[in-house]
Design goal:
Elements: E1 2-10, H1 27-39, E2 46-47, E3 56-66, H2 72-82, E4 87-95, E5 105-115, E6 129-130, H3 137-144, E7 149-152, E8 167-178, E9 181-188, H4 195-207, H5 216-222, E10 237-244
Parallel strand pairs: 3-10, 5-6
Antiparallel strand pairs: 1-3, 1-4, 2-3, 5-9, 5-10, 7-8, 8-9
């Protein structure tokens, strides 16, 4: 038996998130279909995160066990022949038997992408939130710095989240503009349900002048969902990077 770690990327527009759903198509089920074609058996695969419906990934990791002797590069090539155009496998490595794609992960980086042009751009339709209003990125970036550190982020969690421990450590939070493209990067040791999307909605409230940057610390400390901003749409959110302690898994 070998435990294999596979890295994929996908456009989540047509999927109901990563997790297998009874009455909807998920990324996990489509990946399992492809692996079944290659391995002639359906492996039980374990993902690094539960991305929501419509969320995308530039780097998503999962592991599975197999006794198939296929070479790792050949596995990736064969997977891609059986995957749809909006999902692609990019790497495969053998890992130790105690490795887990989710529980061995020490941090993840998400990026929320906003297209801030005056008019809709078809090349920014998928994977971007179209926001044609004035944005003060400097104010947003100032506000984002208050997310840094170890805090209870229960006020930035949607109803329906099942986490009992809502304390997370954020090591990166920054907003950058490149022309009409605005990106919010956030890295943490874990994320709550819709946490990044609520963070983004709160920063947009700052951009609109509805909230002040120095209000962020109070909003976090209040532990109240009512104080934070709206939940930004899913289509602008990307799982950007996954971090493991072993540098060989970079």
């Amino acid at each position: 038996m070998r435990r294999l770690l596979v890295t994929i990327r996908y456009d989540g527009s047509q999927y109901h998130g990563w997790q297998v759903q009874k009455n909807a198509t998920s990324v996990q089920s489509v990946v399992q279909d492809a692996l079944q074609q290659v391995l002639q058996s359906r492996p039980d695969i374990h993902g690094c995160s539960r991305t929501d419906a419509g969320v995308h990934a530039r780097e998503y990791c999962f592991h599975f066990d197999t006794d198939h002797i296929i070479e790792l590069d050949h596995l990736i090539l064969a997977m891609n022949r059986n995957l749809p155009d909006d999902i692609a496998a990019g790497a495969c490595k053998q890992v130790s038997d105690d490795f887990h794609a989710r529980y061995s992960c020490v941090a993840k980086q998400y990026v929320y992408q906003i297209y801030n042009g005056r008019f809709r751009d078809p090349f920014h339709d998928r994977g971007w939130y179209f926001y044609p209003y004035q944005m003060d990125v400097d104010r947003m970036n100032e506000a984002a710095q208050h997310f840094l550190g170890r805090h209870d982020f229960i006020g930035f969690c949607s109803v329906g989240g099942k986490m009992h421990d809502t304390v997370r450590t954020v090591s990166e939070a920054r907003v950058e503009r490149d022309g009409d493209e605005v990106r919010f990067y956030v890295t943490a040791d874990g994320f709550l349900y819709n946490m990044v999307r609520i963070m983004t909605g709160t920063l947009l409230s700052v951009a609109q002048g509805k909230k002040q940057p120095n209000e962020m610390s109070g909003l976090i400390a209040s532990c109240s969902r009512a104080g934070a901003g709206v939940t930004a749409p899913a289509n602008g959110l990307w799982l950007n990077r996954v971090f493991y302690e072993n540098p060989a898994l970079k």
